[in-house]
């Protein structure tokens, strides 16, 4: 949730010109040729929008530009974080996204932190629905030390007569970057340790060529490159940091393909069939734009959109300006609305990573609000001393009822006193994170069971906004830090 770092490392100078002359038949000169089409951090962005042609556009590009054929030498892989994003994905707890990815013929997906957002039961429902397996070689049940039944450590796919071993690695940040209680029963063991265990197994199972499909950031792939090389692995794919990343280190190609279905990677791997060694690996990152829309995928997305409209088309307000997800107006609106719903509380705190979309000019619907605040988080109320309150404030935290522009002061101007006790609202997600001090401050919080978006919806509705009386008149634009 907190990993919202749009670090667009622009290393994709190596734009790989392969589209017009792609020979995907392979097998010439005794070499195998495999094409990997790769996405990560899709986060449910299946609809066409200003930044992307959506899932239907991407599949259209794969068919038109990459020469994708179902019976061709293709591997279609996801680096994880498939859902939790716009309402069309979140409202259905990922079901719509799996539907789309099934139709796009994904071969496997690595489990990211957000695959746990709807608890293990939610993840298992999606797995049952998926026509492709979920990978995670470094997840262990705390009770048994075994790999849990909702993932496999690897799969082997035979393509162009080469048995490709695809090993999954899940981000070790998962206990902080999804709801901590959802993964409380699992350990996420270090990547290198997991590889040491799984590689002999995957080789024994017959894999001839190994690749790593990880929900790993660029810096993590880099740190793993020499270990990978030692095992003869020459390709690592990543995710989680939403980077456009295409680099080589120690002869290992490392690729991360952005996020939100805005882009994908095409990776061409040529393997000597005798030695099973890579002769070449060429990776290119491409944007999902100007596509010929695939009508079958478009029809699936459109069905889910219609389904969504039966729940979330209600108009709750109107704004005549865009309200950016990372603006003071947005932070203040969200945190202040909690204090309207819980007027006895002094301060409200949430993390910017839980605020995921802009509100654009025009009507504001429930769908907007679900996309804005998509996580299954509820508000908890706890007592904290002024000292404890100051200690939980960091750059990722925004707040209502308080400012820190001129020392810590409550909204009425009273300085926050280290020894005084304040009633504080936050999410159960932040409360559960053991790297914050909420649990130590108050081990018995009141769990309100109110969803963190509900007060915002209630507040906007209460204003009866319209074209003549837009929401933006009521916003507080003043920074609090
Ligand atoms: Zn992630």
Description:
- The chain has helices spanning 54-64, 87-90, 95-103, 119-129, 174-177, 191-204, 218-230, 295-312, 328-341, 366-372, 386-392, 428-432, 438-441, 454-462, and strands at 31-39, 74-78, 108-110, 134-135, 139-141, 154-159, 162-169, 186-188, 209-214, 235-237, 244-249, 252-257, 263-272, 278-287, 315-319, 347-351, 362-365, 378-385, 397-400, 402-403, 409-410, 421-427, 446-451.
- The chain is of the alpha/beta class.
- The chain folds into 2 domains: 28-304, Purple Acid Phosphatase, chain A, domain 2, CATH 3.60.21.10; 314-474, Alpha-Beta Complex (5'-nucleotidase,  domain 2), CATH 3.90.780.10.
- The strands form 6 sheets. The protein has a 6-stranded mixed sheet, with no helix packed on it.
- α1 packs antiparallel against α8 and α9 packs across α14.
- The longest helix has 18 residues, at 295-312.
- The two termini are 22 Å apart.
- The model is unreliable at 1-23 (pLDDT under 50).
Which helices and strands occur, and which strands form pairs?
Blueprint: E1 31-39, H1 54-64, E2 74-78, H2 87-90, H3 95-103, E3 108-110, H4 119-129, E4 134-135, E5 139-141, E6 154-159, E7 162-169, H5 174-177, E8 186-188, H6 191-204, E9 209-214, H7 218-230, E10 235-237, E11 244-249, E12 252-257, E13 263-272, E14 278-287, H8 295-312, E15 315-319, H9 328-341, E16 347-351, E17 362-365, H10 366-372, E18 378-385, H11 386-392, E19 397-400, E20 402-403, E21 409-410, E22 421-427, H12 428-432, H13 438-441, E23 446-451, H14 454-462
Parallel strand pairs: 1-2, 2-3, 3-4, 7-9, 9-10, 10-12, 16-22
Antiparallel strand pairs: 1-13, 5-8, 6-7, 11-12, 13-14, 15-17, 16-19, 18-22, 18-23, 20-21
The structure holds zinc ion (ZN).
The site of zinc ion has 9 residues, from loops.
